[in-house]
Amino acid sequence: MLKRSLIALSLLTALTGCALDGDDGQQGPQGEQGPAGVAGTNGSNGTNGSDGSNGTDGSNGVDGKDANRLLDIQMVGRAVLNAQSPEGAAEIVAYQASKKWIYAINSSGDSAVVNIIAADSFDAAGLVKNNEGVITTTNLSSAITLTLNDNTPGDANSIAIDENNQLLAVAMAAKTTGENGQIAFYDISDDAPVFIKNVTVGALPDMVTFSPDGSKVVVANEGEPEGDYSVDPEGSISVIAVTNGAVADTATQITFTDYNGKQAELEAMGMVFANPTGRTINGKLINTTVAMDLEPEYVSISKDNRYAYVSIQENNGLAVVDLSDNSVKLMGLGYKDWSNLVMDASDKDGKINFKKYPGLYGMYQPDTIASFSWKGANFVVSANEGDGREYFFDATDAADCTAKGGLDFDEDDGCLSYIDESRVEDLTLASNFSYLNNDDDDIGRLKVTTVKGDTDNDGQYEALYTYGARSFTIWDSNGLVVFDSGDEIARITASVHGAAFNNDEDENEGDTRSDAKGAEPEALALGQIGERMFAFIGLERMGGIMVYDITNPYDVKFADYFFNRGVVEGADITGDLAPEGMSFVPAEQSATGKPLLIIGNEISGSIAVWQVALKD
């Protein structure tokens, strides 16, 4: 009671004080703000949940269907060059968008020619499937034959077209080993190509390409040796300037002599060097430098025209040329670990026989490469074919071959001067391979290099390195693997072809290539369809084309597989065999209004034109 009384007295005193001070009395209305305390109803902010209506944006997922990876692929055009002797009649192809012409190198005859085929219309009725579902008929034919040797001696290896200046460039290799080759230039702005000039480049120009803006021509000069290594020219890269449509008279030569003496350093980076250094062959002591051993194979130039990427196949490397100053650096590609992937390593096991092989590695050894950009960064895509070295020279018989320092004599090929290849069953394996029988049922038939794997030089191989990676790979500008297709090519083709899996390019006998690089990814082209970027990988042995969506190089997806080849065991080979070169045609440059993929097939001598579009 005392406590309540004191409180009441205090309140009374306060109220009385207010009554005596009129000004304070005006503060009373402020008391009415008390109801604002009811703002505790802020809980009503929960109505913000209505923002959940943004969830309707989820309908964008439907857009995802529009950008799906399902493709509508159909052949719309086909030609066969030199049907009587087709091998080599259609290897490398190019496309002139301004005229809708296809150009194809034809090396099947006595002289080098380029066949030009009109692709401004396609008569679908001309393409008929046989009882295997294979198209063997044609609806395209050569309209113009460009006889290259009228202006340039040698053999044709590669062609490229520049739409900016309407120029054709043809890489012509000299007939004599070690002699410099030439790039033959033609004006293709008129009704027929007109020869302009030859520009001398390095030894054995194997591939030529224009920069996207047409200001430069870059050439990979492979520089292969003579059969007895008596002549072994240096590999090199040539750069030819094109200024206001005018081709320079001379090329800038980029060599690798600065890397001589650095072989160990390059090997530590993941490069490979295989040659008979230290041996005497045909009376000559062989001493191969790094520059002599390097063999540039293929060129791709970044879309910003700044960098030329050059595959160095046999050496398992990549050269990067900064075209702003022609400086060059080498990058080793390293090795693919097969311990957690599966491979059919034998052509004699009579079945599809996928196994894991700890201790087995693949040398990527890319042939064709291409480049694209993502998020402003450059990426390189490689078809990892693989390639070894095997050279012969003339000898009268086995005794003459031995006397000249040869390794073996063959009636057809002659005296073997050098080979870096062996079957695993012919090697002595270290104890870490004790899980193997090393016979025809596992790894015994597999072809591997002899220059790597015996880490302590005791005659036993602690590791095995096989040719190629049986895959395609995306690399970043640092030389790091962003994506590799792993063992998918083999598994997909095995699922599709069954017993015909790993057929060879010139016969129908399943499992033939399991011991030697498998389906052998060699050809490669990139193309944008809608908003998606796709990689097309040509399998030289199986004849099919793998398609991957690489729009995001960190989220690559298999999209499709297509082919036009008969695979019936023992039957004659039919269709399109050994895709060697490919050219992608964007929809806006195509006669059909949809993207095209043009493929040159080396063994069948055929040019196949496929229409490739996103399904509706």
UniProtKB/TrEMBL annotation:
<dbReference type="Pfam" id="PF01391">
    <property type="entry name" value="Collagen"/>
</dbReference>
<dbReference type="InterPro" id="IPR008160">
    <property type="entry name" value="Collagen"/>
</dbReference>
<keyword id="KW-0732">Signal</keyword>
<dbReference type="InterPro" id="IPR055188">
    <property type="entry name" value="Choice_anch_I"/>
</dbReference>
<feature type="compositionally biased region" description="Low complexity">
    <location>
        <begin position="26"/>
        <end position="62"/>
    </location>
</feature>
<feature type="region of interest" description="Disordered">
    <location>
        <begin position="23"/>
        <end position="64"/>
    </location>
</feature>
<protein>
    <submittedName>
        <fullName>Alkaline phosphatase</fullName>
    </submittedName>
</protein>
<dbReference type="InterPro" id="IPR052956">
    <property type="entry name" value="Mesenchyme-surface_protein"/>
</dbReference>
<dbReference type="InterPro" id="IPR015943">
    <property type="entry name" value="WD40/YVTN_repeat-like_dom_sf"/>
</dbReference>
<dbReference type="Pfam" id="PF22494">
    <property type="entry name" value="choice_anch_I"/>
</dbReference>
<feature type="signal peptide">
    <location>
        <begin position="1"/>
        <end position="19"/>
    </location>
</feature>
<feature type="domain" description="Choice-of-anchor I">
    <location>
        <begin position="88"/>
        <end position="611"/>
    </location>
</feature>
